[in-house]
Amino acid sequence: MGGIPSKEVKSIREVQPGDHIKYHRLGITYAHHAIVVSVNANSYTVIHFDGDKTGGKNIIQETKHSFGAEKFEVLEYPSENRFTREETVAIAFYFLREGFGKYSLFGNNCEHFATTCATGYPCSIQTLRAAIAANVYVTGIPALIAYCKTKKVVSIKKENGRFVITPL
């Protein structure tokens, strides 16, 4: 199973607000996903879904002050399959204010958050890969893949110069 192409970021100049990024954890065992919301000369700020680790607030805004301390990749969505970068940032801030629901490793994790911000569709390719590798719920795999492509959960439009975000 392929997934969304990505490229390693080697310079902060390659990072833009609205990028969906992923950090590899434990080597390449799994990845943590986030949305870049601002970029400065030597730092960048992300919004990400961090489970329930921070006293009940599960959507976190965090500034990374040392570019290069953590390697990460930018996911390269085809433009017809994603919101604009500006819309992606607006959706990330919407979830920062409103929350993203209860964390679930297989049903509502950081990758679900980032793909929802970028496309409107919650999907976790690494969760699908783990389910396939574990050979569990094999009959449910096609349903999960279909869910990733068809269950849009948020829409966005611009009215009077402001974004209006609507949960579906």
Automatic annotation (TrEMBL):
It comes from Mytilus coruscus. This is LRAT domain-containing protein. Residues 22-126 form the LRAT domain. The lineage of its organism: Eukaryota, Metazoa, Spiralia, Lophotrochozoa, Mollusca. Gene3D superfamilies: endopeptidase domain like (from Nostoc punctiforme). Pfam families: LRAT. It comes from the Eukaryota. PANTHER family: LRAT DOMAIN-CONTAINING PROTEIN, OS05G0310600 PROTEIN.
